[in-house]
Amino acid sequence: MKKIFLVLILIAFSNNTFGQSSQHSTKELGRLFPTKKVVSRYHNNWTQTYYPKRIAEFKKEPLEFGEIVFIGNSITEGGLDWSEKFSVGHIRNRGIAGDVTDGVLKRLNEITYFKPKAVLILIGINDLFSLNNEEDNPALTYDKVVPTPEYVGQNILKIAKIIHRKSPLTKIYVRTLLPTRRAYMKEDILIVNKIIKKNEFKGYYEVIDLYAEFVDSKGELIKDLTKDGVHLNDKGYETWVNFEKPIIEGLQKAHN
């Protein structure tokens, strides 16, 4: 009888990891997050200051085991409380304004350690801005050795592959890059999205084609969904949520 009772306790414990809080020492957390000195050479001068500040926020409120994690840049960060937007619990926002694919690679330890239920990735547009920084915003400075669209695409695959290798039960979704209303970026976005789609067959991630949902007949971001040609407005975020709601609800049902 005692053995049966013990088994039941162990089963209950193993089934209760979703969103479970854990206490971690400062030393443990230190290994999960980049240090203040760790920034990407592809971060612009503003992001090199902001990235460590955002990492410090993550460190104060680390993930919990078994959550859904949104990984990205300002477009993801700008969604704020994604749990509220989707009306479900345990969606964590790991967007950092200005971040690039290389920056995400440097902060994956937290993600893989906490073994999320799922991760949904949208990253790469700032890498492409680096290729065109003189045309976009001369006030921001970048390393002159900037990545190519192919480099960006391969980095996105690398992000997904690392998560899959270190957390094999995590469901991974890679979102295609959103279109913009900056004409000089159209071709680069298409190149990256082609790489994302072409490699889905390898089986360690699924594609969410956000691009197709947000593009107009001219290959630009639908005007009514953006506030500046790149970032989304409230209607844009509402469109995003409506599009992905079946996926998020499916993840919730799979857990329950």
Overview of this structure, please?
- By secondary structure, the chain is of the alpha/beta class.
- It has one domain (26-255): 3-Layer(aba) Sandwich (Rossmann fold).
- It is 49% helix and 9% strand.
- The protein has a 5-stranded parallel beta sheet with strand order 2-1-3-4-5.
- α11 (186-198) links the parallel β4 (171-175) and β5 (206-208).
- α10 packs parallel to α11 (186-198).
- The longest helix has 22 residues, at 234-255.
- Mean pLDDT is 87; it is low at 1-18.
Give the helix/strand layout.
Elements lengths: L1 H13 L11 H7 L12 H16 L7 E5 L1 H4 L4 H5 L4 E5 L5 H5 L2 H6 L4 E5 L2 H7 L1 H4 L12 H18 L4 E5 L10 H13 L7 E3 L1 H5 L19 H22 L1
Parallel strand pairs: 1-2, 1-3, 3-4, 4-5
Describe what is shown at a glance.
With 256 residues, the chain is α/β, with parallel strands linked by helices. It contains 13 helices and five strands. α10 runs parallel beside α11.
